[in-house]
Amino acid sequence: MSKLNVAVLFGGVSNEHEISLRSSANIIRSIPKDKYNIIPIGITKKGRWLFFPGDVSEIENGNWETDSDCTPAVILPDPMYRGILKYNDGKFSIEKIDVVYPAVHGKNCEDGVLQGVLDMSGIPYVGSGSLASAICMDKCLAHLVLEREGIKMARWKVLRRDDLEKLDSFCADVEANLGFPVCVKPACSGSSVGVNKARDIDELKSAVKTAFSHDDKALVEEYIVGRELEVAVMGNSPTDTFTTSVGEILSANEMYDYDAKYVNTASSGSIPEDIHENGVSREIKETAVLAYRAAGCKGLSRIDFFSSENGVYLNEINTLPGFTNISMYPKLMEDAGIPASDLIDKLIQLCLELHGEI
Ligand SMILES: Nc1ncnc2c1ncn2[C@@H]1O[C@H](COP(=O)(O)OP(=O)(O)O)[C@@H](O)[C@H]1O
Ligand SMILES: [Mg+2]
To answer: For the CA atoms of 7, 13, 15, 17, what is the dihedral angle to 10 degrees?
Structure first.
C-alpha cells in the first residue's frame, strides 16, 4: 500500500504557539514513517502558513520560521483538490493530502476555526469537529453543555466585556453567591494564561480585567481545593471510547499555572496507586466518557478533574491535548500499553474511519 500524505500543522496564532512547537516535534518524530509521508506546515504567530521541509529540531527551537527553505503553503477549501496549494520559485503547485494532523493548540486552532476550514476542504483530520472543539474551548459553553448532562463542575458566573460597567455589582454577586476565594479565567484560553486566584473584591476586579486582556468573557468559579486528576480518552463512538488510568498533576505552584506547567521542573505528572481503580478513579472515567459524548468529541481528548472532599468536579476537556515531553496524554497512553508511535497511528486511523475513508 502506498504511503499516506499527512500534513502536520504546527505553531498557530494562539498564546500556546511555543507549546505547539514542542508537541508537534514529538508528533513528527513519532509518526510511523513506513506508513506516512510527513508534510510539515507551520502557522506563524501572525497567521502565515509555511511549508517547512527542514529538520524537526528547527521546529522545536522556533528557528523554522526564518529558514530560507520555508515556502507558502495553504490548505485549499475547495474539496475538489483535497490538498495544499504551494508556491515555490514563482510557481504554484497542488499537493494531495490524505490526512491533516493538527498539532496545534488554542485560538483559531483548537476552537473549531481550523476544523471549519478542514471540513470545507474535505480532508480528514485528527480530532474533534468544529462544534465539539468550540464547546470545549469556551469554558462557559462547556459548563452549560456538561452540567445539563448532570456532570458536577465548580459553581460559576460570567461577566461579558460589554457589561464591564456592572463590575461592582458582579463582584458583590460573586462574593454573596460563590464566596472567596474564586478562580478567574478567560472563557477561551489555555495553558493557564490569564488564570488567577482572587481572595477578595480587589483581587477579583484585577483578575477580571486580566481575563479581559485575553477574551471578551471572564469566567469566575468557586475555588476547588483538591487533587488535579486527568484521564486520556480515545475513540469515535460510545461503544469504542477508551479511557486510560487516571493521572495526577503534582504542581510546583499552588495553581497549575503556566510556570508550573512548562517552566518549573519541580512539577510532575504521576499515575497514583492510591486511586488506581477505586471509586474516584471509576467515577472520573465514567464521567469522562459521559462528557466526551455530551460535547461530541472525536478521536482524542484529555479530560481534567479535581477530586476534593466534596467529591469529583470536572474542570475542562482539552480536544487537542499537549504532546510535549512532559504532557499527560501520551504519558497516560504509554502507561496503558500504547507507545507514541502506535498512538499516532491509531489516531490517524480513527480519523480515516470517521471520514469513511476505511
Ligand atoms: N475552579 C478552580 N478551582 C481551583 N483551581 C482552579 C480552578 N479552575 C482552574 N484552576 C487551576 O488553574 C489551572 C488552569 O485552569 P484551567 O481551567 O485548566 O485552564 P487552562 O485551559 O488554561 O488549562 C488548573 O490546572 C488549576 O490548577
Ligand atoms: Mg487546564
So the answer is: 30
